[in-house]
Amino acid sequence: MATIKTITPHFVSDNKPATRHFNLWDKFNEFADAQKSKQTLWFFLVLMVHGVIFLPIPAVLSYYFDGSAAVLAITMICFFANLIANMAGAGIRTVLRLFAASFLIHLAMIIIVIV
Fold first, then answer.
1. Of 49, 64, 93, 113, which residue is 20 to 30 A from 14 by alpha carbon distance?
2. Does residue 16 lie in a domain region?
3. 79-92 per-position pLDDT tens digit
4. Which long-range contacts (CB under 8 A, 24 or more apart) does 52-59 make?
5. CA pair distance 16, 27, nearest whole angstrom
6. How far apart are CA 53 and CA 51, in angstroms?
7. pLDDT of res. 1
8. In a domain, 4, yes or no
């Protein structure tokens, strides 16, 4: 009679050995993969940060620091790129990359217009 083994062999199990990452890209990918279960939270966070912090930036830069209309265009492109990516169900890596890129773009805009 054949017996059924319920214990999974070690070469079939999903346990992976802990790897050490030495570059930032692999660390980011590991962080993003760990955040997969919190993707709805990231959707909410991205919308709140864009709505509360990033969208008022063109008004401040235009009225107080004589910023150009390109500031508004860049902000709208960043906002809608993040919104569409989140609502279309993009992967967590894409969402976090777009959010980081948007943050860096807005930081660069502030530095360029003020300085």
1. 93
2. no
3. 999 999 999 989 99
4. 54/78, 54/79, 54/102, 54/106, 55/79, 57/106, 57/109, 57/110
5. 16
6. 6
7. 56
8. no
Q: Comparing C-alpha atoms, which of 114, 47, 58, 30 is closest to residue 81?
A: 47
Quick: pLDDT tens for 28-43: 999 999 999 999 999 9
- State the CB neighbour count (10 A cutoff) for residue 55: 15
* Helix spans in 3-91 (H): 24-34, 39-49, 57-65, 70-87
Task: Give the pLDDT confidence of 7-20 residue by residue, as tens digits.
Answer: 666 665 556 666 67
Tokens 């790129």 label which residue? 81
Domain count, the chain: 1
* Cα angle 97-57-40, degrees, rounded to a multiple of 5: 40
